[in-house]
Amino acid sequence: MSAGERRAFLTAEWRYLVMLNYDVDPAILHALVPRHTELDLWNGRAIASVVGFRFLRTKLLGVPVPLHRNFEEVNLRFYVRHRTADGAIRRGVVFVRELVPRLAIALTARAVYNEPYLAVRMRSSAPAKPVEAPGPVSYEWMTGRRWQHVSAVTNGEASLAPIGSEETFITEHFWGYTRQRDGGTVEYEVKHPRWRVWAATAASLDADVPRLYGSSFARALAAEPASAFIAEGSEVSVFRPRLLPG
Fold first, then answer.
1. CATH of the domain at 74
2. Residues with Cβ < 8 Å from 194, sequence gap 6 or more?
3. Residue 126 domain-assigned (yes or no)
4. What pLDDT, in 10s, does the model give residues 182-240?
């Protein structure tokens, strides 16, 4: 590692990201926006996404953790922006809830980032190896003694999302922002290349929304998604958080 090069806290691959995107009343999200950030709208729309994907080959500080390298995650997230002191705009995500199948993963994420992780039983139909057309992809979890899911089916061939498209807006927010217990905000960077995406059909969400995300999301997530696609994913690097001043 060269002088001045940052070391990632976490490295992994994120693969076969099922992304169901919903229009949400901005007033619902405003209450969850961390300090120093504001909602990032797409053509005037406030969007929240339910995302399921596979975490593969995970390492912490370059070290693989036995039994915690490959697992599923499902999250609900929305989009914000932060203006730095020099006027640059950083586009990021805020997580409402993140589901993983390992308690140690949830505890580490809560301790380091204060992210809202919950450990539950999970399973998926995502391919174990790279394929050109995975077809149906489903991520499932159990709460309240009932299996729930987010799923979709690839349609056509994967291609890079056009610059300025909704797919690019959703996949290329490269920062995370998290409200801390004292009201402050931490910021962390996520690096990955541009992703190929497939159009998706048969998008489906079956979730106990009030229990997982709060009753304020129930109406929006009961509707058909405004859009849906599946992203191929890539290697990713997640860096340590820093507290935003002020």
1. 2.40.400.10
2. 160, 161, 168, 171, 172
3. yes
4. 999 999 999 999 999 999 999 999 999 999 999 999 999 999 999 999 999 999 999 99
Helix or strand run (H / E) with residue 167: helix 166-171
Residue 36 placed within a domain? yes
Q: What is the pLDDT of residues 29-69, one digit of tens each?
A: 999 999 999 999 999 999 999 999 999 999 988 888 777 88
For 147, phi then psi, to 5°, come to -75, 135
2 part of a folded domain: no
Helix (H) or strand (E) holding 180: none
Show the tokens assigned to 100.
């993983």
User: What is the domain extent for residue 67?
Assistant: 10-241
Total count of domains within the chain: 1
To the question of pTM greater than 0.90 for the whole model, the response is yes
> Which run of H or E residues covers position 75?
strand 71-83
Q: Is residue 26 part of a domain?
A: yes
Report residue 22 as tokens. Answer: 């919903």
DSSP 183: S
Residues 12-27: pLDDT tens digits?
999 999 999 999 999 9
CA atoms within 13 A on the CB side of 234: 14
Q: Which two tokens stand for residue 34?
A: 């961390």
